Amino acid sequence: MAGAIDLITLAEALPGWTVRHADHLDGSEPVHDTTEIVVLRSGVRLGAEQLQYFPALRHVIRAGSGLDGLDLPELARRGISVHRNPLPAAASVAQWALAAVLSLGRRIPLGQSALAAGVHFKAGCVTRPLAEARLAIWGAGPIGQACEVALAPHVGDIAYAARPSIPDGTRQLPAAALADWADIHLVALPATPENQGRFGADFLAAARERRPMLVCVGRLATLDVAACLEALDDGDLAGLALDPVEREDMRLLPRGGPPRNFIATPHIGAQRTDVRDQLDDWVATTARTLAGRREAVRP
Q1: In this prediction, what percent of the chain has a pLDDT beyond 70?
Q2: pTM, whole model, 2 decimals?
């Protein structure tokens, strides 16, 4: 799909193959019937509804980490393999997380939005040292771990939300205890059914006394965005930063209203040239390998 890889790079890796981009996977574009390999970006749904238009599909290449848009059981049932590479993007996303935490921690977005509204809000931008803050990381995959590395020099303490999959020796606390413990919550979770809307009214009520900052580098569906914005305006959150904003998510964002200590960006965490180059090379190499297998049929 458009935005998943440089098409020239992919075409050079697949001589003799037809390489096209698609804006949609809903059958509305005449590129589906013979497609063997699909290269996806984030924010794309591929399940039974879309797969009916891809009778020849054998491989899905995800240029990044997220799998929440993919119906993995349905893909497996159809014998379609999934290939992804979360590692190149991790450090870049962590850099965005660091920028967000530093900005929210100094209340820079609040001061800027107040100035834009004609208010000199210097007194409202007084903050505690970030070095005193406790950071809770929700999600211990490559991105969560990279965020720990990036943020460790700037905060006082770090703990992961406990899960059986977290390696032994990693500092972790029960998820239920983090609301009373953390000053910053960094969400690096996929939008699995158990995580959908996890950071909503109940979480915000439990965390209210600490007035934490909430930073999302995972999937936006893990948050109840309306509830988080309301908590921000009510003073129950000290700051809110959202990177994984897809085009369809723009309707969730505030228009007007009071100055806020709020950051929203259009899923730019991995949008660094070195990351894009690494992912393009990986996608091209993976596609060339898949195309060379006997079961791969030329489209």
Answers
A1: 95
A2: 0.88
